[in-house]
Amino acid sequence: MENTQTTPSIAIYPGTFDPITNGHIDIINRALNLFDTVLVAVAINPGKTPLFTLTERIEMIREVFNEDTSRVRVESVSGLLVEYAVQQKAKAIIRGLRAVSDFDYEFQLALMNRKLEREVDTIFLMPGLRWIFISSSIIKDAARHGGDISDMVPPRVSEMLKRKFGL
Fold it and tell me: What is the CATH number of the domain that holds 45?
């Protein structure tokens, strides 16, 4: 008898997620329509100074997907992403595109990753139109100045931003 069991498909969605936004969540949910598991890889980037600690960023993401831990895993990652993808047996790297301006950099990155590891593909996903304009940087800037960002991030993230900025 033929074995019809298949290996679960895994995709990695890397980012700083400082903080996670509804746009990120939308991309993760879209990726879950294509893959069995999405591994959210929270980047340790020495070139950036995040507002939230690595632990805080991981906890915020886990809280959003707390009921779906079998399909969404959250881990920290440093070093070459494609090497991490191979270690995790991931088939793809998910990248979000908001605007044409994102494409040039993302395209170069995808080509470099492909050169380094031919077995891992990059898949570009666009968030829903209602999230296309937001980024973590824009969210932090608005929150820092007392803007209402409550409909652009999960409730816990909104609370944590207010606390960070003393609002």
Answer: 3.40.50.620
